[in-house]
Structures are given as structure tokens and as C-alpha cells.
């Protein structure tokens, strides 16, 4: 699959199982290939809860797996993962292969090795990703690094040589991230420490003008909570607001964390009523321009596509060239073959505003 | 045998009606699909789903949206679409073909030569369309090249002389309505004198190169289908039929379309 002539904002549309989210995961890996966190986020990011079991079960599925049926899944052939890219970010290619092993951790001297169930319980899984990375150190000069990342019950390890690999700020906004307790707090904390809380508040005011401020309140030793200052209800926990406000908080607060990097949004329209799409997306576009962020967003919503095109006109006076920066990629799975079509803003505008066609 | 898919792009709604009638009267005996559920899924992405559309400011707007017509039988499925004018043809064909999951088996474009010679219209359009590198067009108007997809541009009225669809309608009208046409002609001729004797802007459209021919067809249409648009009389009356297919210019356009439909 190949995405060419990327824009500042890149919308990914296509039916279910067409590979939209996989593209976001691939970008996440390409941006931070030598970081275990990126592999964890990519492999288990579709889950609402993360655990070592979920990670172990999902890491291997980032790789192309042979169709050949096998009872022993650990010896089932797994192919290479290759992701290439061009642009200002110097990473050029990531090649990765996967191996999974079941090992007996030390010390295991007291095990009854004839009791199979005991062995099963004692076995620990270690998943390893072998990496070959290539990046442009200077114009025309390629640097490489080879090493491995291993993930086990005790944590993860990384080969020293991989530390040199470049990394790009990247944030993933999954469809349900606003419903988790940790992610919004993390996002708002970043807004406070990064001194961009006023912009977050401004975004929220585009949805509810009565919101005047946002704070983190310690409710018990390990329970920080987000409170919104509201004109009518006073300090009010974010948890009692609707999904749209929660989603907007996460969106606004995470953009600056991706400064000069990449923001990945899975299901752009998630939790946002059509009436707030334009103000939210206008603010989103303004913020990504201000912070130099490139956006990749999946969507099933024509309203979201239209709203993004509309935001281009709103911003054209502020940032000439914004309109050309919206690009849509249509993903198709036809007769087992994946196809990608690129639509620039002009063409997209004609198809949507002049012909009313469905480009999903 | 798999169905063949042919995409025909014309300038306006009257051209859609005329080409549609040629498809019905042609060798393949195609029938117009009356509801979306009857249209082959190949064309689904050309059927508008949003109305009213929004404009660039995000406001909904009541404005006409082109809806293709579809003509089908067991072996062929043909979409006929209006671009909304000559200067929109190259973007319309690119937008439509890109929207489809795969290229059709044939692509035909039918345009007028009312403001330039047919060869000039053809050359500019060929240049504009081939820059998208989606398919190739031959070297002469009216020709169909192999492909796939098979493709060609037909410049009305006959790929050689300047004119418009109305020239063909006048050919057909002369055969189908031998009494009505001279009467309508007399009426237009009478107005011609009045229009040339005044500087009134009322006759601005009438005095354009194709104005009198359009008025003639319009006058006949107003008798045949009072109060309705020209495309209605083209579709519902006797403009296209076995007898009116004989004039050379009608036969030539019909042959162009048939060659796109043909597997040869």
C-alpha cells in the first residue's frame, strides 16, 4: 500500500477491514521504530484495556502471517514488515521480523516437568521484534542500525544500537480514548505544563460557551480528575459531560504533544455530533497549523469530510495554502487486492459540493 | 459473458436525453434504469447520495446536481452523464472515472463545436484529458481507439463542421415532423427580422451562433410538450426512431456509440 503526495491533513476512508487503522499503526511505528511504546501502542491500541496478555497476543499480528494452517501457532510462518517513507523526517525504511518463544524463567528447580499443566502455567512468552532501520543522517548519507526489541512478562529490552534511530513526536487518538480515565488526564497535564491550556479552553468554548476553564483535581491519592469550570454549574467533573466534550478535551490537549510531528486520529468523528464538527475541526486545523503537526485521520463520516473541507476555507485567509493541504485517500479491497486512490482538496470539493457523491 | 460497462459524458441534459434515445434505438436495445436498485453496482459511486449539498462555507444550498442516466441490458450497462458545459468536461470525466472502483470498458465523450472548429475542440480536450494518464484518445474526432478502455471524442454535429446538438435535432425533426418543422422555421425567421432591427438585450441569446437553431427546436418542443424542457420531448416524442436514424449525421453518432459498446 502506498500513500503519495501527503498533505498537512490526510483523511483515510474505506470500508471496514480496508486497512485504515493499519495505516495509522504503520505511521506510528515508522515515527518511533526503536521505541517499545510505539510497538505496544500499534499492536494493542485497538483494545480499550492493555495487558501483557493482550500485547503478546496482538504483537505478532502486526506482521503478515501465512495462511497455512498450523496447530502450533508459534511455528506458524510470519513474514517481514517493511515500511518506507520520504520527507523531512529522516527515517527512510523500517524492516522488522517477529519471533515468539515460550521460555521457562529462572529459577524453576521445583517444577514437576512431567505435569504438563504445571509447565503450561510456568511458561512465559517472550516476543521479539528484529529491526533493521535506515535513516538519512545528512543529505545523501544513510545511517543504519540493527537490533531487537523484546517484550516479556518482566518488561521489554532494546538493543543499544537502536538508541541512535531518529524519532518523531507522534500521538494516537483512538475512538474510545476519551472514555478512559488516564488518557484525558495525561493530555490535560501536558496542556498545563506546555502552557497551551487557554487554547484547549477556547476549543471547548466552541462547543459550550459556558465553559470558562479546565483544571486537574486530586481526588484521593491516586485519582486525579479533570474538572471544567462552568458558568452555570461551577467546577464540574469532566466525567459528567457528554462524549463530545470529553473527545474535544483529548483532541485539543494532545495536538501540542505532537508538535512538529504526527497526530493519528482513528475515527475522527467519534463522539462528535454533526453540529459541532465544523467548530471542532476548525480549531483542530488551526492548532495543527500553529504547532506544525501533520494529521492522519480515519473516518466513516461524509459530514466529517465536508467539515474538514469547509475548515479549509475558514483558514485560507489566515494560512494561505491551507485548502491544498487537505488530502483524502480512499482505500478499497477489491478481489483480494488493496488499492489506494488519492483525492486532492479541489477534486474532493467538486465531488462533494457539486455532485453530492459518496467518496467513502 | 461479463457485462460491458460504458461511460458516456456529454455537455448538458439535452445531450443526455438524445444519447439515451440513441442507445434505446440502437442495435443493443438498451433500456433505461428507472430506479437506483436496478443500476449495476459498478456505477454505484456515480449516484449522488447527498442533497442538498453544502457549499464551501458549509451551508446547505439548493442547486441542481447532475444525476447520470443508466441504460442496460443483459450484456451492457451504460452511464450517460452531463458535465455542465465544455469547460467542465475534462474534470468531470476524471472525477467520475476516479470515483469508480475500476475503469469501464469504454469511455465516450460527446461535445459541441459551437465556439471553435471541431478539430480545435478535439485537440484541446484530448490534451486536457490525457494529462490525467487514465486512458488514450485517438488522433481524430469521431474515432474510437482500442484501449482498454476503448475511448473517443465525438464533436457535434459531425466532427467536421461547427455546430451543436440542435443541428442533429433539426435533421431528426425534419423527418419526424415534416409539417411542424417548417411552421416553426417560419416563426423563427419572422423573429429574426425583428431581432436584427433592435438593440434590445432581449434577443442576446437568440443572436448567438446557435441561438436560432435552439429557438427552432424549442418552438417545436413547445408544441409537442407544452411547458416542459426540451429533454422531455426528445425523450418522449418521435425525434429518434427507425426513420430518423437514417440521416448521415445521426447514423455517424450512433455508429460512434455502437463502436464503444462493441467488443470488436
* Structural classification of chain B: alpha/beta
| DSSP, total strands of chain A | 14
Largest interface: A-B, 23 and 22 residues
Number of domains of chain B: 2
* Mean of residue pLDDT values of chain B: 91
Distance between the termini of chain A: 17 Å
In one word, what is the shape of chain A? globular
Count helical runs of chain A. 10
Shape of chain B: globular
Task: Tell me the total number of β-strands of chain B.
Answer: 6
The proportion of strand residues of chain A reads 25-35%
- Provide the low-confidence segments of chain A as ranges: none
What topology, given as strand order, has the largest sheet of chain B? Answer: 2-3-4-1-5-6
Mind telling me which CATH architecture of the largest domain in chain B this is? 3-Layer(aba) Sandwich
Task: Give the class-level CATH name of the largest domain in chain B.
Answer: Alpha Beta
Largest sheet of chain A: 6 strands, mixed
Instruction: Profile the largest sheet of chain B.
Output: 6 strands, mixed
* Percent of sequence in beta strands of chain B: 5-15%
Question: Mind explaining what this structure looks like?
Answer:
The complex is a heterodimer of chains A (360) and B (264). Helices cover 32% and strands 29% of the residues of chain A. Chain A contains ten helices and 14 strands. Chain A has helices at residues 20-31, 36-44, 52-59, 116-122, 182-193, 197-207, 243-254, 274-291, 302-316, 345-354, and strands at 9-14, 81-84, 91-103, 124-138, 141-152, 155-158, 170-173, 211-218, 224-230, 234-237, 262-265, 294-298, 326-334, 337-344. In chain A, helix 5 packs across helix 7, helix 6 (197-207) packs antiparallel against helix 7 and helix 8 (274-291) crosses helix 9. Chain A is globular and about 60 Å long. Chain B has two domains: 4-162 and 245-261, Rossmann fold (3-Layer(aba) Sandwich), CATH 3.40.50; 165-236, no CATH class. Chain A binds chain B through residues 278, 302, 306-307, 309-310, 313, 332, 334, 341, 343, 347, 349-359, and chain B through 45-51, 53-58, 65-66, 91, 94-95, 98-99, 101-102.
Amino acid at each position: 500500500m502506498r500513500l503519495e503526495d501527503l498533505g498537512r491533513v490526510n483523511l483515510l476512508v474505506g470500508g471496514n477491514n480496508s486497512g485504515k487503522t493499519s495505516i495509522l499503526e504503520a505511521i506510528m511505528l515508522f515515527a518511533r521504530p526503536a521505541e517499545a511504546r510505539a510497538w505496544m501502542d500499534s499492536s494493542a491500541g485497538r483494545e480499550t484495556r492493555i495487558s501483557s496478555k493482550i500485547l503478546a497476543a496482538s504483537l505478532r499480528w502486526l506482521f503478515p502471517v501465512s495462511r497455512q494452517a498450523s496447530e502450533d501457532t508459534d511455528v506458524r510462518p510470519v513474514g517481514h514488515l517493511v515500511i518506507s517513507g520520504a520527507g523531512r523526517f529522516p527515517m527512510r525504511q523500517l524492516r522488522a521480523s517477529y519471533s515468539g518463544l515460550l521460555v521457562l524463567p529462572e529459577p524453576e528447580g521445583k517444577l514437576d516437568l512431567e505435569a504438563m499443566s504445571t509447565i503450561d502455567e510456568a511458561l512465559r512468552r517472550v516476543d521479539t521484534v528484529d529491526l533493521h532501520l535506515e535513516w538519512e543522517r545528512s543529505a545523501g548519507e544513510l545511517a543504519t542500525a540493527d537490533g531487537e526489541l523484546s517484550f516479556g512478562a518482566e518488561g521489554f529490552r532494546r538493543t543499544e544500537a537502536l538508541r541512535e534511530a531518529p524519532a518523531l513526536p507522534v500521538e494516537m487518538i483512538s475512538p474510545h480514548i476519551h472514555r478512559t480515565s488516564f488518557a484525558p488526564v495525561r493530555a490535560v497535564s501536558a496542556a498545563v505544563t506546555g502552557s497551551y491550556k487557554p487554547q484547549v479552553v477556547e476549543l471547548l468554548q466552541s462547543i459550550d460557551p459556558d465553559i470558562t476553564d479546565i483544571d486537574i483535581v486530586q481526588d484521593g491519592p491516586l485519582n486525579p480528575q479533570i474538572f471544567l469550570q462552568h458558568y452555570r454549574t461551577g467546577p464540574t467533573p469532566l466525567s459528567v459531560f457528554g462524549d463530545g466534550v470529553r473527545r474535544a478535551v483529548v483532541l485539543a490537549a494532545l495536538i501540542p504533544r505532537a508538535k512538529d510531528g504526527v497526530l493519528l486520529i482513528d475515527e475522527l468523528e467519534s463522539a462528535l455530533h454533526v453540529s459541532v464538527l465544523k467548530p471542532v475541526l476548525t480549531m483542530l486545523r488551526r492548532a495543527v497549523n500553529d504547532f506544525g503537526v501533520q494529521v492522519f485521520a480515519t473516518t466513516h463520516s461524509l459530514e466529517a469530510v465536508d467539515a474538514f473541507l469547509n475548515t479549509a476555507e475558514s483558514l485560507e485567509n489566515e494560512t494561505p495554502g491551507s485548502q491544498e493541504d487537505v488530502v483524502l485517500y480512499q482505500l478499497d479491497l477489491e478481489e483480494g487486492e488493496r488499492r489506494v486512490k488519492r483525492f486532492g482538496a479541489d477534486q474532493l470539493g467538486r465531488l462533494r459540493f457539486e455532485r453530492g457523491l459518496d467518496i467513502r | 459473458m461479463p457485462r460491458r460497462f460504458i461511460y458516456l459524458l456529454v455537455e448538458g441534459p439535452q445531450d443526455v436525453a438524445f444519447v439515451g434515445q440513441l442507445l434505446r434505438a440502437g442495435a443493443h436495445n438498451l433500456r433505461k434504469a428507472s430506479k437506483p436498485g436496478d443500476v449495476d453496482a459498478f456505477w454505484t459511486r456515480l449516484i449522488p447520495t447527498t442533497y442538498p449539498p453544502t457549499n464551501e462555507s458549509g451551508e446547505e444550498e439548493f442547486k441542481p446536481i447532475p444525476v447520470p442516466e443508466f441504460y442496460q441490458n443483459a450484456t451492457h450497462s451504460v452511464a450517460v452523464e452531463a458535465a455542465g458545459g465544455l469547460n467542465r468536461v475534462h474534470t468531470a470525466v476524471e472525477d467520475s472515472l476516479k470515483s469508480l472502483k475500476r475503469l469501464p470498458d469504454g469511455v465516450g465523450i460527446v461535445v459541441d463545436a459551437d465556439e471553435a472548429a471541431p478539430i480545435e475542440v478535439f485537440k484541446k480536450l484530448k490534451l486536457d484529458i490525457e494529462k490525467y494518464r487514465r486512458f488514450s484518445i485517438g488522433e481524430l474526432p469521431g474515432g474510437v481507439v482500442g484501449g482498454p478502455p476503448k475511448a473517443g471524442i465525438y464533436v457535434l454535429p459531425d466532427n467536421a463542421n461547427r455546430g451543436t446538438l440542435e443541428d442533429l435535432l433539426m435533421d431528426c425533426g425534419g423527418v419526424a415532423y415534416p409539417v411542424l418543422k417548417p411552421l416553426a422555421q417560419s416563426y423563427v425567421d419572422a423573429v429574426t427580422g425583428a431581432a436584427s432591427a433592435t438593440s434590445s438585450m432581449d434577443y442576446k441569446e437568440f443572436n448567438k451562433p446557435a441561438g436560432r437553431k435552439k429557438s427552432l427546436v424549442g418552438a417545436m418542443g413547445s408544441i409537442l410538450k407544452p411547458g416542459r424542457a426540451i429533454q422531455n420531448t426528445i425523450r418522449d416524442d418521435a425525434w429518434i426512431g427507425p426513420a430518423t436514424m437514417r440521416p448521415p449525421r445521426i447514423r455517424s453518432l450512433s455508429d460512434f456509440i455502437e463502436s464503444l459498446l462493441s467488443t470488436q
